[in-house]
Amino acid sequence: MPRKKATKGRKGKAKSKAKAKPVVEKKRRNRRNKDPNRPKRAMSAFMFFSNANREIVKAQSPNLSFTEIAREIGSRWKNLRSSDKAPYQTLADQDRARYEEEKRMYTPDPKYLVQDTKNGKPKKDPNAPKRAMSGFMFFSNHMRPKLKQRHPDITFLELGTEIGKLWRGLSATKRKPYMQLAAEDKARYQEEKANYVAPPQYANKKGKKKDPNAPKRGMSAYLYYCQAYRKTVQKKHPKKKMTELAVILAANWKKASKSQRKKFQDMAEKDKQRYFKEKIAYDKKKRR
């Protein structure tokens, strides 16, 4: 019988001769310069727990790697009872309130206001209406300097825990003044937001563009009242911030009698009719 011809090479050699895939270099994303004075983001309850227990875990198990320490802390947090998690949750709530307050009062440096076109994030207008504060935030602002004066050596975390405890211990009647301030600040924010039009450089390109020729919405009676009395309130309280002045104006408006409100309500009604007439004419022109 004729012998079979031996196949040249082996499978291993055939594999080694296979073409190597070209290495694709990943392009590094250019990091944006961040404002060093911007508010630091709030920490979660787990992050507070992790910071408090990391050194303890290191001391108990010095041979653990960084990832093993993180895994151990995660396991301990998972097995922690709700009552034991509560102090860290309080710290997280306080830190969130701190962040929201600082963010509300923060005005970014113009040189850091760079449009992130890749992520589609618009620039933020520093003159945009500041978000409303919660009842807890008003209480926190009221109590923080008092507690610091009583306990000058108190740490930030201890201060947050103490304020959280005091807030939880307040009755509904004692919470009422702070909730009232929050409601008034919410009304202020909604009014300012309704009448706010972002400048072109801060407009969200993803959102619907506003026609500059569209009729301007009618002002409310409260806004007419604010326009009339804002300067008077500023003279009486020259050291107050704009948000604090807004709270005072809202409180004064609430106390105003029907006869005192009537003038501004008539102005609002007149402006409302003006808006409706202009809107009808604008819509007709638009349909042509």
Please explain how this structure is put together.
The chain is mostly helical. It has a domain at 214-288: DNA Binding (I), subunit A. The protein has helices spanning 11-16, 45-60, 66-78, 82-105, 135-150, 156-169, 172-194, 221-236, 242-255, 258-287. Helix 5 crosses helix 6 (156-169). The longest helix is centred in the C-terminal third of the chain and has 30 residues, at 258-287. The radius of gyration is 31 Å and the shape is elongated. The relative contact order is 0.07. The mean pLDDT is 80.
Tell me the β content. under 5%
Most strands sheet: none
Helix amount, in percent?
55-70%
CATH architecture of the domain at 214-288: Orthogonal Bundle
Task: Indicate the radius of gyration in whole angstroms.
Answer: 31 Å
Strand segment tally: 0
Shape designation: elongated
What would CATH call the class of the domain at 214-288?
A: Mainly Alpha
Order of helices and strands: HHHHHHHHHH
Structural class: mainly alpha
Unreliable parts: none
The pLDDT mean sits at: 80
In DSSP terms, counting alpha (H) and pi (I) runs of 4 or more, how many helices? Answer: 10
CATH topology of the domain at 214-288: DNA Binding (I), subunit A
Distance between the amino and carboxyl termini? 96 Å
| Fourth-level CATH superfamily of the domain at 214-288 | High mobility group box domain
